[in-house]
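Q: I'm building a small set of examples for a reading group on sequence design. Run inverse folding on the following structure and report the sequence directly after it, with nothing in between.
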């Protein structure tokens, strides 16, 4: 209801109107809704800061919550399950979509997708690459698309490699899990005209090549808004300054 909308809006960075998005047929900022686990809020902030007023960004993700509805996740098979309160996107998003009216939705798949997951009614642990994990994610993606207007593209950010550290464990950084998740993104891009793979991994890796690691815990990105000289930081310029690609996605696919 309105309480949920107001709570999320109050906790979200929203850019003010500014310059025209390149080639976009409106003077209003492009409205970008970002969803995902807690690591996606840093992506939302980078888009907001790097967009220089050309993007209005609403973060509608949730801490510890992957794409799918879960009973719990655990970062290693020898630790206890975490049980965050995760509301399915098809239930959570409709009032936010009505209020914010996004031009595009960006899904950031975070490290919770590399952890073991347990689903309602199923006591077993599942990891990226196993059949139940795959079918559950496909079902969740279909449900998410079901609440989006057909003219609202869903961009899914591909996943960069994570390092074992404060959050990610040795089990989570197994290459097969990451490869499986990025294969899922590529499959969704092919399966639905409304879905586009967003090339996040390459942009993040380019930023880290230029300025060193911007993921102090090996998983979540952190961004300086300004360098010492007052200019937008290199990390924000690489990962955040992407209004033109968003506009291109909409225009090329005839969705704008």
């Amino acid at each position: 209801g309105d309480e949920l909308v107001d709570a999320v809006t109050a906790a979200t960075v929203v850019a003010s109107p500014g310059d025209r998005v390149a080639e976009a047929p409106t003077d209003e900022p492009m409205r970008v809704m970002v969803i995902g686990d807690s690591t996606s809020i840093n992506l939302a902030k980078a888009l907001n800061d790097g967009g220089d007023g050309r993007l209005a960004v609403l973060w509608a993700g949730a801490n510890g919550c992957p794409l799918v509805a879960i009973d719990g996740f655990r970062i290693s098979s020898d630790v206890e399950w975490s049980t965050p309160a995760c509301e399915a996107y098809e239930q959570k998003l409709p009032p936010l979509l009505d209020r914010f009216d996004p031009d595009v939705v960006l899904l950031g798949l975070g490290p919770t997708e590399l952890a073991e997951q347990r689903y309602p009614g199923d006591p077993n642990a599942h990891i990226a690459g196993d059949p139940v994990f795959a079918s559950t994610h496909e079902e969740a993606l279909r449900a998410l698309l079901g609440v989006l207007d057909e003219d609202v593209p869903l961009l899914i950010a591909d996943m960069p490699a994570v390092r074992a550290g404060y959050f990610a464990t040795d089990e989570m950084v197994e290459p097969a899990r990451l490869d499986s998740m990025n294969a899922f993104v590529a499959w969704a891009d092919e399966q639905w005209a409304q879905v586009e793979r967003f090339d996040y991994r390459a942009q993040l890796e380019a930023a880290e090549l230029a300025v060193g690691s911007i993921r102090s815990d090996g998983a979540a990105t952190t961004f300086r808004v300004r360098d010492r000289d007052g200019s937008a930081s290199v990390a924000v310029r690489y990962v955040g300054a992407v209004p033109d690609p968003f506009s291109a996605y909409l225009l090329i696919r005839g969705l704008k």
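The longest strand covers residues 30-36.
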